[in-house]
Amino acid sequence: MKLALIGFGQAGGKVVDQFLAYDERVDGGFVEAAIAVNTATTDLQGLERVPRSNRILIGQARVNGHGVGADNELGAEVAEADIDEVQHAIDDVPTHEVDAFLVVAGMGGGSGSGGAPVLARHLQRIYTQPVYGLGILPATDEGGLYTLNAGRSFRTFVREVDNLLVFDNDAWRSAGESVEGGYDRINREIVERFGLLFAAGEVGSGDAVAESVVDSSEIINTLSGGGVSTIGYATETVETSASGLLSSLSSSKGSKHDGTDLDTDGAATNRLTSLVRKATLGRLTLPCDVSSADRGLVVASGPAEELSRKGVERGRTWLEEETGSMEIRGGDYPTGGDEVGAIVLLSGVTDVPRIDRLQQVAVEAKETTEDVRTRSQEGTAALVDTSGELDALF
């Protein structure tokens, strides 16, 4: 699936940088173009792979390259005012070769959480390709302001994109991990999961051809209903023919005297079925009740000889039963290496406790803000009245 990636804000830019590294490492071919947008000069300078010509600084008239200080309302205003600056960079993208836009943003800061929905709305007006969001939720220990920003931004971002793919930092931070080390690892986790999904179907000249190809239309159809999506991923190391003596011994144990495989097909089928279950019931990018998903996609990845079409079908059937949805698609994506994996995309999920908590925080904050504003106005009015009485005395 060919994507135009646009990272908005610090987190968004770093993740897009990681996507470029991943795409190059696996020869995925899914990144057609990459742009980073920010209000802070230092954040743009810290990127390594996004071309300098595609690093767009906005809001110079308002914040002079120093960022918006986690003020997402200011971030939205700046994005609205300078949207033409971003469009100039997008004009150089060969959009006729792009299957979709992916706007990536951390939802706890100011530039990304405020600006990403503005950009998504702009892209929706101009282009016919789907516009997806990849929103990264802040961990709860990052502070109340970031949680509040995420609560405010989430509903807007969902409304402005065709589908919002979500990664929840809260579910992926490790105890005792440094902030910098934690974010680097989390960014790699994000890119591995979503990158493998988007790379599926992009076949190079020397690549093995899948039995059941997962092309861009499969992903687009799975995401077509809108709403919120999450991804699960599970892998298992296998001994391939390139693994040497151990592999040969293992193969001989599962063979008949006539040379035909006795257990190979069954083992591959069982492995994939198990991996689909692990991916679905394990740690999702956004924890949720799996049964609340409207649509789903199962992708098996790994060495071609280890991928079982029957295993994919069994995994897909199992996911249909878990979700109660008939819109569960499936396919395989042959890759090199010695790992067999299963990616499970769940789209249109509705039973998400983390989002419910975020929305509650946003509602409570709005009520608190209105109370504070009312008290402030009453206090100011009282102060003015007192000042008038003092003037009359003197």
TrEMBL record:
The keyword Zinc-finger does not apply. It comes from the Archaea. GO terms for molecular function: GTP binding; GTPase activity. InterPro entries: CetZ, CetZ_C, FtsZ/CetZ, Tubulin/FtsZ-like_C, Tubulin/FtsZ_GTPase_sf, Tubulin_FtsZ_GTPase. This is Tubulin-like protein CetZ. Involved in cell shape control. Its main location: cytoplasm. It is found in: Cytoplasm. GO terms for biological process: cell division; regulation of cell shape. Belongs to the CetZ family. GO terms for cellular component: cell division site; cytoplasm. Residues 246-266 are annotated as: Disordered. GTP binds at Q10, A11, G12, G13, K14, G110, S111, G112, E142, N169, N187. PANTHER family: CELL DIVISION PROTEIN FTSZ-RELATED, TUBULIN-LIKE PROTEIN CETZ. Keywords: Cell shape, Cytoplasm, GTP-binding, Nucleotide-binding. It comes from Natronolimnohabitans innermongolicus JCM 12255. Residues 2-205 form the Tubulin/FtsZ GTPase domain.
